[in-house]
Amino acid sequence: MKKKIGVLVSGRGTNLQAIIDAIEKKELDAEISVVISNKSDAFALERAKKHCIPSVVISHKDFDKREDFEKELVNALEKSGVDFIVLAGFMRILSPFFINKYKNRIINIHPALLPSFPGVNAQKQALHYGVKITGCSVHFVDEGVDSGPIILQCAVPVFDNDDEHSLSKRILKEEHKLLIKSLKLLIEDKIVIQGRRVICKGEF
Ligand code: GRF
Predict the structure, then answer these.
(1) What's the rounded Cα separation, in Å, for the pair 141 and 186?
(2) Which of 8, 9, 14 is the best mutation target for the ligand 1 pocket, counting ligand atoms within 8 Å of the beta carbon and taking the most?
(3) Is the dihedral angle over the CA atoms 138, 143, 144, 148 positive or is it negative?
(4) Left, alpha or beta for 42 (phi > 0: left; psi -120 to 50: alpha)?
(5) What is the chain's Cα-based Rg?
């Protein structure tokens, strides 16, 4: 049976699009069973609609407590029977309540080589620091900010004439590939977690 993926988004959704494309091209043997956005105007929702993928808006603003917001997320995810959850530009921190429910089944894509430059504006942070190489990371989500075990990373050079836009664009191109590679490993059960280390089995 095909593994079911729930994708959580807040914005434009190019990483969501990369998953949709990989599934349509049969590079990924999975199905997106739901897209959840905490923002009603996220362009990612249009992408889901265009490809007839069920989507739901759950706004954090409608809840006083984080846990109530997350309970609603869990309801939607359970209804669609997800096996894995991808945070693809989802701009909310998840509490231990949510993380423990889906232990080692939530992954996130981050536009830097973690543990460097966690949190928001990672590309800007890299430029300000003056690193010559940055990149992207796909990692399991734990209770911290971008701090879970790293599945795969890809290095991206920083050029002297880069600004935030040009650097983000170069990184984003790699993000899309890295996310699919990571999801493939996860779906094909080729990942072993040993403490902080994630061992990927086989060729990819
Ligand atoms: C990406 O840069 C991702 O690494 C970060 O948020 C951005 C989301 O972009 N977590 P998109 O919505 O997938 O286009």
Answers:
(1) 14
(2) 14
(3) negative
(4) beta
(5) 16
Query: How confident is the model over 182-186, as a mean pLDDT?
Result: 97
Residue 155: both structure tokens together: 């290095």
- CA 26/CA 164 separation, integer angstroms: 33
Which stretch of DSSP H or E encloses residue 150? strand 150-157
Is there a contact between 24 and 30 (Cβ–Cβ < 8 Å)? no
Give helix then strand counts, H and E, for the chain.
6, 9
Ligand 1 site, residue 148, Cβ cutoff 6 A: no
Mean predicted confidence (pLDDT) in 153-166: 98
13 CA closest ligand 1 atom index: 12
Stretch 11-22: mean pLDDT: 98
pTM of the model: 0.96
The string over 54-70, giving b where at least 16 C-beta atoms fall within 10 Å of a residue's C-beta and e elsewhere, is ebbebebeeeeeeeebb
Taking CA atoms, 157 is separated from 152, 164, 168, 171, 181, in Å, by 17, 13, 11, 9, 20
109 close to ligand 1 (CB < 6 Angstrom): yes
Angle between helices 43-50 and 14-24 (to 10 degrees): 10
